[in-house]
Amino acid sequence: MKANDLKKKNDDELNKELLSLLRTHFNLRIRHATQQLENVAQLRIVRRDIARVRTVMKERSRTL
Length: 64
Description:
This protein is mainly alpha-helical.
């Protein structure tokens, strides 16, 4: 996911995206803890996507 794509979304879409990513991250953590996760790099990718969404949301809140 690119930051430019996130900047095109409105606030509601960003909130939905963040909730979806947080759920995905939780599920990946559970699968990793039970040793059912094959690709552990997914955790890193999802964490970075969460950070990107939160960064865009923070930038918008500062401009208001």
